[in-house]
Amino acid sequence: MATAASRAELERLLEDDVPYGDLTTEALGIGGAIGVMQFAARAPMVLALAEDVAAIIALAGCDVELFAASGAVLEQGAPILQARGPAAGLLRSWKVAQTLIEIWSGVASDTRAIVDAARAVAPHIPVACTRKNVPGTKRFAVAAIKAGGAVMHRLGLSETVLVFPEHRVFLGDLPLFQAVERLRRAAPEKKLVIEVKTADAALAAAVAGFDVIQAEKFSPAEIAALVKRMASMAYTRARPLIAAAGGVNAANAAAYAEAGADVLVTSSPYLAKPRDVQVEIASADDGTRARLILRKDAAVPAST
């Protein structure tokens, strides 16, 4: 069972919420009682982080059966998991697990909505999500984006070349084609991407030799006009890809796809409303037993 986070990272999440023991459970003296905890979708959603949540509950000392994998489309009432174990473990892991699924399933669900809208028009168009997730949550953000059917735009500054206007202010009067030459010497195996805010800037970047033109806050009509103008140009290399970025969401993704964008770039899913997960915890004193597939002593992968 692959998790997005390492065992140590999942253990830290538990420690953050329960640093010195569960005062309420301990004071009531119920920690050793055996119970059953069930998670279910309260409304339709795309599931994310299910494997990490199952691992967290297992780390708390419980046995877990996972009914659906990350990326699954769940209807209202669909079961997600069932756990059995001591009350101390169930109650310790409950809120951390629930919150992770709710937040990141919201991201996955909104991602899937954008992907579905765009691909209804252009079946193979990629939707790429930016790195503008909450700092420190990248492993979970990437997992949720993938569960929603999108890809990551860039994981960080170390892996891609993307020239922003904020970079160009330090280049002075350096011609754009010379900037391209400098970049290709320093990073010859990388695609060169540039963000532009006007059609003229996009055309200049295409002539200079950039591989991808990231059109920031262009309307669908402006993207269509840019596609038309760039199609009429002659290139020494392949025509640059046009990435529509800035304000792309489920409501306009189809329009951008129809306009001819090659890629849709968005940060919208990170602002998604969490999806509600219903949690029920009951005593198992009646002898209720669940079929369990993840044992509490199972190894949690170091990372994925």
UniProtKB/TrEMBL annotation:
<dbReference type="InterPro" id="IPR037128">
    <property type="entry name" value="Quinolinate_PRibosylTase_N_sf"/>
</dbReference>
<dbReference type="Pfam" id="PF02749">
    <property type="entry name" value="QRPTase_N"/>
</dbReference>
<dbReference type="InterPro" id="IPR027277">
    <property type="entry name" value="NadC/ModD"/>
</dbReference>
<keyword id="KW-0808">Transferase</keyword>
<comment type="similarity">
    <text>Belongs to the NadC/ModD family.</text>
</comment>
<dbReference type="InterPro" id="IPR036068">
    <property type="entry name" value="Nicotinate_pribotase-like_C"/>
</dbReference>
<feature type="domain" description="Quinolinate phosphoribosyl transferase N-terminal">
    <location>
        <begin position="22"/>
        <end position="103"/>
    </location>
</feature>
<dbReference type="Pfam" id="PF01729">
    <property type="entry name" value="QRPTase_C"/>
</dbReference>
<dbReference type="InterPro" id="IPR022412">
    <property type="entry name" value="Quinolinate_PRibosylTrfase_N"/>
</dbReference>
<dbReference type="InterPro" id="IPR013785">
    <property type="entry name" value="Aldolase_TIM"/>
</dbReference>
<keyword id="KW-0328">Glycosyltransferase</keyword>
<dbReference type="InterPro" id="IPR006242">
    <property type="entry name" value="ModD"/>
</dbReference>
<feature type="domain" description="Quinolinate phosphoribosyl transferase C-terminal">
    <location>
        <begin position="107"/>
        <end position="276"/>
    </location>
</feature>
<protein>
    <recommendedName>
        <fullName>Putative pyrophosphorylase ModD</fullName>
    </recommendedName>
</protein>
<dbReference type="InterPro" id="IPR002638">
    <property type="entry name" value="Quinolinate_PRibosylTrfase_C"/>
</dbReference>
